[in-house]
From TrEMBL:
Gene3D superfamilies recorded: Divalent-metal-dependent TIM barrel enzymes
Superkingdom, taxonomy of origin: Bacteria
UniProt keyword annotation of Isomerase present: yes
Protein name, as recorded: Hydroxypyruvate isomerase family protein
Gene Ontology molecular function: any one: isomerase activity
Boundaries of every Xylose isomerase-like TIM barrel domain copy: 31-267
Species this protein is from: Amycolatopsis halotolerans
Signal peptide annotation: none
Length: 274
């Protein structure tokens, strides 16, 4: 399928503003993304804690509203990402933080229309049995999925690279959790960069798991920079995803090699909005 600028697919893009436009403070990035042509944006958890002040939540929401962009995705609070933490879904002892972040996230969803939430699974913890963590994860995911269902939203579960203690590394790892849950609104987040780095064959993942996929993100590999800086045929993979039935947005989640605006040369301006 050929898009309006001659690309091999016509999937819409959404700019991840926790990794793009980091030249600017977080609250200025939505406006910068809109100026660059984007009409859809997504974020990791945009606050320093699971329980931000009402003022901080309002400022974040207003930054999106005033920019005139749609919030398409949001991570639940994942702990201290800079220190290597990767989610609280399975973290025994931090249940209260997870519950608090759900309240904040779904409040933002009601205000901003976001209907997709990334529930990072969490690292394995020394001294806690993996089975205990997995039991907690199923409980947390079921609770969050029920709340999401009430507003017509989904959760997505993401395999990650670069963190040995994070147990979901392949698409099959995540889908095994989905199978145990058996909930229609908990789906796979297929980040093509993470999957490729971890050794998944992307064509096989697309052929097998597109019907289970709720969101897609991209960066080139190696390097995690913009398309064209590595070895992945990202346009080809997105074409196959669309042909297999995926119709959602594609999250642009790479570390720009150079300034963010310069790094977007691969994507024609008219393909950044919808």
């Amino acid at each position: 399928m050929t898009g309006p600028a001659g690309e091999r697919h016509s999937l819409p893009y959404t700019a991840n503003l926790s990794i793009l436009f980091t030249e600017l403070p977080l609250l200025e990035r939505a406006q910068a993304a809109r100026a660059a042509g984007f009409t859809k944006v997504e974020y990791w958890w945009p606050f320093d804690s699971a329980d931000p002040s009402g003022t901080d939540v309002d400022r974040f929401a207003r930054s999106i509203e005033e920019a005139g962009v749609q919030l398409t995705g949001l991570n639940f609070y994942a702990g201290d990402m800079a220190a290597g933490e990767r989610g609280l879904v399975s973290w025994v002892g931090r249940e209260a933080e997870f519950a608090t972040s759900l309240t904040v996230a779904f409040g933002l969803a009601e205000r901003l229309g976001c209907r997709s939430f990334n529930a990072l699974y969490g690292n394995r913890i020394d001294g806690v049995a993996p089975s205990e963590q997995d039991d907690l994860a199923r409980t947390h995911l079921a609770t969050a999925a029920k709340a999401a269902e009430g507003i017509g939203a989904q959760l997505v579960l993401e395999p990650l690279s670069g963190t040995p203690a994070y147990p979901l590394k392949t698409a099959a790892d995540a889908v095994a959790v989905l199978d145990e849950l058996g909930l229609d609104n908990v789906r796979l987040l297929a980040d093509l960069y993470h999957l490729a780095v971890n050794g998944d064959d992307l064509d096989t993942v697309i052929a097998r798991y597109t019907p289970r996929t709720g969101h897609v993100q991209i960066a080139d590999a190696p390097g995690r920079h913009q398309p064209g800086t590595g070895e992945l045929d990202l346009e080809g993979h997105l074409e196959k995803l669309q042909a297999a039935g995926y119709a959602g947005p594609v999250g642009i989640e790479y570390k720009p090699d150079g300034s963010t605006v310069d790094s977007l040369a691969w994507l024609p301006y008219e393909r950044r909005g919808n």
